[in-house]
């Protein structure tokens, strides 16, 4: 089959032209980056796991009525998605203090927040994705007040779903990031969940032990990232067989 036309390459994914207008193929790479790409590595199997996990979360969200870009998984590393116009914001939802919020406010990581807190960063790698208030978002025209109200409602639904799914397998959803896209049906614009939901963009802690099962394992050199993501996939029952360490044949006695 002729190779599809590459439209965009990001840090962890590549977007190719889709088979029909209005569709794209999203390819999950094994590349990991942190600290605005200052730290990089290739982690075998990460793309396969994130493809599966994002499929699992997006399908579940679709089943409870949250609109998403996900159409179907095509193979180990690729999924068919709806083409959207990405709103240039990282929408971050926090249930417990961690990462940049813990640092900014001098809070201990893991401190429960009084309610889920949503914040927005402007998606610009050169600027390091700065935190922006709603005032900036509206003034610069990245999204309207109505869009923001819809985004907050959508983010809270995603949070409740993800927190519940994770709790059921003994994992605490500390925080996560989502991205939102616009789609048009004739003249009618809708906002839908886009990009990915995976341990690359969530903080996931084991409820019993506090063990980190997300990208902080890579950011903070806490062990094997593949093992952590495999554990999340295993608990959720979405572990594909022979994926992560499938490079060598094993002798079966
Ligand atoms: N996050 C992300 N991409 C980013 C920044 C943050 O997926 O470019 C996720 C991150 O994995 C965490 C949440 O958003 O689950 C909150 O991240 P935070 O603002 O604490 O930043 P960090 O400490 O990761 O720099």
Automatic annotation (TrEMBL):
> Has keyword ATP-binding?
yes
State one molecular function term (GO).
ATP binding
Report which residue ranges the record marks as coiled coil.
none
Record domain SAICAR synthetase/ADE2 N-terminal: where:
6-235
**Catalysed reactions, semicolon-separated:** 5-amino-1-(5-phospho-D-ribosyl)imidazole-4-carboxylate + L-aspartate + ATP = (2S)-2-[5-amino-1-(5-phospho-beta-D-ribosyl)imidazole-4-carboxamido]succinate + ADP + phosphate + 2 H(+)
Q: In which pathway does it act?
A: Purine metabolism; IMP biosynthesis via de novo pathway; 5-amino-1-(5-phospho-D-ribosyl)imidazole-4-carboxamide from 5-amino-1-(5-phospho-D-ribosyl)imidazole-4-carboxylate: step 1/2
Cellular component per GO? cytosol
> What EC numbers are recorded for this enzyme?
6.3.2.6
Q: Tell me one GO biological process term.
A: cobalamin biosynthetic process
Origin: domain of life: Bacteria
**InterPro entries for the chain:** SAICAR_synt/ADE2_N, SAICAR_synt_PurC, SAICAR_synth, SAICAR_synthetase, SAICAR_synthetase_CS
The top EC class, named as a word, is ligase
Q: Which UniProt keywords apply?
A: ATP-binding, Ligase, Nucleotide-binding, Purine biosynthesis
Describe the family membership recorded for this protein in Swiss-Prot or TrEMBL.
Belongs to the SAICAR synthetase family.
Listed PANTHER family: MULTIFUNCTIONAL PROTEIN ADE2, SI:DKEY-6E2.2
Name listed for the protein in its UniProt record: Phosphoribosylaminoimidazole-succinocarboxamide synthase
Which species does this protein come from? Maritimibacter fusiformis
Q: Specify the taxonomic lineage.
A: Bacteria, Pseudomonadati, Pseudomonadota, Alphaproteobacteria, Rhodobacterales
Primary gene name: purC
